[in-house]
Amino acid sequence: MYQTIISSTADSIATIKLNRPEKLNAFGGPMREEILDALEKIARDDDIRAVIVTGEGRAFSAGGDIQHLKQLRDNKDESGFRNILSYGQKITGAMRSLGKPVIAAVNGPCAGAGLSFALGCDIRIASDKATFAPGFALIGLHPDWGGSWFLPKLVGTAKACELVFTGTMISAQEAEKIGLVNAVVPHHELLHAVDSQAEKMAKNPPGVLRLAKESIYRSLNSDLEAAFARETEAQLKCFYSEDFLEGVTAFLEKRQPRFKGH
């Protein structure tokens, strides 16, 4: 039983909900450790095919717990500070290496490490009430959890510099315009929209999604020839799978395929 998150599974879709609404889901207490533990359990469960992360209450996450950060600084507790940085890196690293789609349902304010957490997801769908801000510079800190790597990949270096240097908060609509989020939906439709996307992904062959996710992210740091080689290797793995046979058979028989992950 977790203290600061709610972890649940329904119909092959896992949900991790940050659960410190009174603190706008700031990362405090055992939350980092609990998120990482939940991700590790999801990674081991072959029945789970997609993951949703969101926040309880009116916020997605306000980022680091400022009171705790102040205590660390007052005590010059570098070891404690390094520990929370390490857990943040492990979380976003785990989401990127997880062979399953991870969708952020951004239900409200998303700032600082909360933004980096969302950026570590594969897809971001935002409520029209959501707002986004790197925010680190406003309290004298540098982006973490991989935020300085994720952000320019999505919005370009110039826009990333603008957001980080100013700490400016932007609306969900502006976030969609610059490519920070995939879509913006009315607040009351957010969870339905995200569930719908997750269900579509969960119906597809999990092996294909795992290989495709790996190829897409590896392509960020490789050339076209390397991508060709990876695609050939991945396609050959798919070629001998039962899911490929089921897919082409179902197409020819004009029915919906039933992929089993084999």
How many β strands by DSSP?
Answer: 9
Structural class: alpha/beta
* Average residue pLDDT: 95
The string of secondary-structure elements, in order, is EEHEHHEEHEEHHEHEHHHH
CA-based gyration radius: 19 Å
Would you state the CATH class of the largest domain?
A: Alpha Beta
| CATH topology call of the largest domain | 2-enoyl-CoA Hydratase, Chain A, domain 1
CATH superfamily annotation of the largest domain: 2-enoyl-CoA Hydratase, Chain A, domain 1
- As residue ranges, the low-confidence spans are none
What is the first-to-last residue Cα distance? Answer: 32 Å
Overall domain count: 2
CATH architecture of the largest domain: Alpha-Beta Complex
Q: Major beta sheet, specifics?
A: 6 strands, mixed
Please give the count of helices: 11
Globally, the shape reads: globular
Strand arrangement within the widest β-sheet reads: 1-2-3-4-6-9
Describe the structure.
The protein is of the alpha/beta class. It folds into 2 domains: 5-202, 2-enoyl-CoA Hydratase, Chain A, domain 1 (Alpha-Beta Complex); 206-252, Lyase 2-enoyl-coa Hydratase, Chain  A, domain 2 (Orthogonal Bundle). 49% of the residues lie in helices and 15% in strands. It has 11 helices and 9 strands. Helix 1 links the parallel strand 2 (13-18) and strand 3 (50-55). Helix 1 (31-44) runs parallel beside helix 3, helix 4 packs across helix 5 (147-155) and helix 5 packs across helix 6. It starts with a strand and ends in a 10-residue tail after the last helix.
